[in-house]
Design brief:
With 88 residues, this protein is of the alpha+beta class. It has a single domain, classed as 2-Layer Sandwich (Alpha-Beta Plaits), CATH 3.30.70. Helices cover 28% and strands 41% of the residues. The protein is built from 2 helices and 5 strands. It has a 5-stranded mixed β-sheet, covered by helices on one side.
């Protein structure tokens, strides 16, 4: 059963390829949603898919980048997202 999470990553996450890596990792786990920079230096991600795949994606990101803090919120699944992309 697919779930959705809205995540804010804080730390050293802009200007280091975070969005491009997040896009690649999310696609590897066949997740849907988006990732984008926020004006305050954080990165926002909406990710949808199987719970274990989302957890694995987040662990891969935390292992690759210096994430100081995460804010994770469960949100309703939005079926309009069919794949994962970088939003600008």
């Amino acid at each position: 059963m697919a779930i959705a999470k809205h995540i804010i990553f804080k730390g050293y996450v802009q200007g280091v390829g975070f969005r491009f890596t997040a896009n690649s990792i999310a696609k590897r786990y066949d997740l849907a949603g988006f990732v984008r920079n926020k004006e305050d230096g954080a990165v926002e991600m909406l990710v949808q898919g199987e719970p274990q795949d989302i957890d694995d994606c987040l662990e891969d990101l935390k292992d690759t980048f210096t994430v100081r803090d995460l804010d994770i919120e469960d949100v309703p699944v939005n079926t309009s997202y069919k794949d994962f992309r970088i939003a600008f």
